[in-house]
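Q: What would this complex look like in 3D?
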Amino acid sequence: MDSRKLTTRVWSSLSSGLLCSAPLFVLLGLGFFGPLALVILYSVQPRGSFSPFGTPTLENYRDIIEQAFYLSFGWSLLLAIISTTILLIICYPLALALKRYSGAMADILTLLVVAPLFVAENIRLQGWVLFFDKGGFLDGGLNHLFGFGPGSLVNNVPSIVFGMVYVYLPFMLFPILLGLSNVPADVREAALDLGANKWRIFRDIEIPLAMPGILIGSLLCFVISLGAFSEAKFLGKGVIVTIAQDIESAFTFGQNWPRGSALAVLLIILAGTAVFFAMRKIDLNKVLGTR
Amino acid sequence: MSDSVLFRRLAKSYMAFILTLMYVPMLIVALASISKSRFFVFPVRRYDMKWYENTFSSLQIQDGFLTSLTVAFCVAVISVTLAVFGALAYARYDWRGKSLFQQLLLVPVFFPQSVLGLALQLWFNSFGVVMSWEATVFAQLVWIAPIVTLIISIQAFGYDGSVEEAASDLGASRWQVFRDITIPLLSPGIFSGFMFAVLLSWGNFPLAYFTSGADVTIPEWLYGKMIGGYTPMVPAVGFLSVLAGALALAIGFSLKAFSGHKDNK
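A: Here is my prediction, written as structure tokens for the whole assembly.
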């Protein structure tokens, strides 16, 4: 083969990749990594400082430890773990059920699952508040029919978990669906023919092949629920405080940017650790490339 | 296959149950918006459209819809443009930085949005950028452009690159290949990406909340009212926003069906 032609071709495809990705690299640099660096810089500034260039100090981190912020960290972590687990249990069978459909029906069902994502979270949570609140749809309806109702079912931790599970369901479902499409039907059949029972097929074939999708879904749900605050605000009505609420109030009411930044850095480290470990097990070309 | 009828029925009813559950809040919101009383009580005693009248006559809400629409449109156009090229780099070409690019692109998607919003607020503040809907467009791009890139990439993984090579061997210029081969082949992905971008932006709250300054999008308006005191205009505006989203989906899909029909002739 003509080696010069080969090198020019390699060179041109190499530069095409770089060229095509350049605008997104710029966007991420200016809109993500830059701001993130600034947050890190602010987190080591003295309390209440409004400039990122003071003498670095670790006092914000010390404050966080001394002032029991670990409570809201604990709540966020707990809520994230619980809702991710529940979502896994709900979405795996749901994905299996959805996978049976193909063609137009599959498109319609997919659309039905995605569409709620496009409605602002606030509106959907407001709908659930009106559903569960005292005198709302559930309580009022039962009262009307049977003369007694459960009263208010909001303002508690389970209602917050419910809200999170509801809001993040599509984020778990779609990666699992994508993962399950990596399980070819003939492999299942071959295993059946060779005498494997359903449980063995599930454990030895389905789960390992669908694992990348399951991991991505769990990771996505875990990370976004770590940053959740609307659910706690509207369904929980302040019964607990999540870490995202703490960060927000440090920036707004507290006017203490360094503290807010330090809290954000800790949250990012928590989320980042999870992403880092899970990402090492996932081959993206494989997940997105096979349909 | 080997599954029993009972199992299949169970799967079907489970799916129907979850799908119905997904839409319960929208239905309740619709119901609350047409009930006359100041506070929602079920069963609704008297229905009334006055909350919609108030909504339509409110200049603030009209402004909100306009702002949301403008932001969604700008975000969609810009992110699709970036994502078409991004998807080629993501799926089509082999190049040295590819796996780094693939991983970095995912980070904003796997990131708590409230924190991203605050970080961007801090960032804009430091550079003296005035918070406005333009800043919100930028903030939402950081989150939405990667998602759109992933969506178009799925399409780009699926198509046969040799078609492009054949075209350039036959003497097509780079631009011709791009316009006549690449774009048409990617168009289903571009369509889904555009829809996703419009609708994700339309429903987005945290990024807008921290970056829009004096401009107020519909999700922000709703948030303000939900914090400051419930009025039935909250479900009214909420339901209108749901309808607008549904309308956008319907228009999008009928356009797609129409163009597909034309192509087949």
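A: To summarize the key features: Chain B touches chain A through 95 residues (CB under 8 Å). The two ends of chain B are 38 Å apart (CA to CA).
Q: Very helpful, thank you.
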